[in-house]
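Hey everyone, long-time lurker, first post.

I ran two proteins through the pipeline my lab uses and got sequence/structure pairs for each. Pasting them in order. The first:
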Amino acid sequence: GGDHTITYPILQAVAAKHGPVGLVHVDAHTDTGDTALGERIYHGTPFRRCVEEGLLDCGRVVQIGIRGSSYDPDPYKYCRDQGFRVVPVEECWRKSLVPLMGEVRKQMGDKPVYVSFDIDGLDPAYAPGTGTPEIAGLTPAQALEIIRGCKGLNIVGCDLVEVAPMYDVSGNTALLGANLLFEMLCVLPGVKTT
């Protein structure tokens, strides 16, 4: 619940216990902005703040489904400069993400990983109830492939953010979000699903 700002203090606590962690981040946006309206902490900046504080193991950060307009001709430069793997949504269209998640599992290894899922990573046809929808996003099936593809990782925490009930007229976004959270619980270490 909440906007993506909540991930920043969560990662402060997680890193205090585990040290810098890997990150599987599903989103339409990289959330690595510096400021907005003069503020350094808002839903578009959490991962820049996390980098600055050494909370992330930057060579083990993957951002999946990234898209949308930008004021910058190279909007992913900051992320790549930090060592993040950015997977633009165009690389996800019309295909299974099972092979990608095999690569992600190798990248993450057995060290601690945090999973952060912004509902706007999904196409607004499936999840319209969010404050910053971007067209041409991931499908629910791809979301399941990503989450289920995290099974076996050393997941030390996870979140699902940016569901906005006031924009969720049908309730479909909340339903999808709840199901994705259930799936996240199922891939936590030690959970038996068969």
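...and the second, right after it:
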Amino acid sequence: YPRQHTRETQLREFNLTQTEAMLRSYTKVLFVRDPFHRLIFTFMQDTGSSSSFSSFVQDVLDSGQHKSSVAWKPLVSLCQPCLVQYDYIVMFGFLSQELGHLLRRAGLPADSLLPEFTDTQVRWTYSWLSEQMFSELSLQQKKQLSHFYRWDLAAFPFSSSLLSN
């Protein structure tokens, strides 16, 4: 597709015809992560915060969907998976299998391009950390978070997410 945009140009700045043409010309890949893991990651990155995880979650819930940060906003509202037909959806925690497949489908030598992943360790660590952080939340906060991320949980197979229960 003719390059009519810079790196900073967002898709919404183009008209419908241009947007459709661009989307047809690209291979579209969406990387998804359990929304609860995204919250934990964001909380841990905010090293200047002295608040508890429960307080952080309450701030997220109080901000609402429209005022929420991209760091924890529901993926469905960011990526429009119902409108954009993605060619690949890559789940965090399964990167080594999925990226290898994706590179092979693109005709690239997957073995030489992929860094070494420790998916098993990452999944175990996040599982343990999720359980610890989840236990800090009140029942009401758990229900509100499940509601806040209901469309992500419906759109993507986060079967082991604590928010799914």
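Reply from user beta_strand_b:
Welcome! Quick read of the second one: The chain has a mean pLDDT of 80. The beta strands are 29-32, 88-91.
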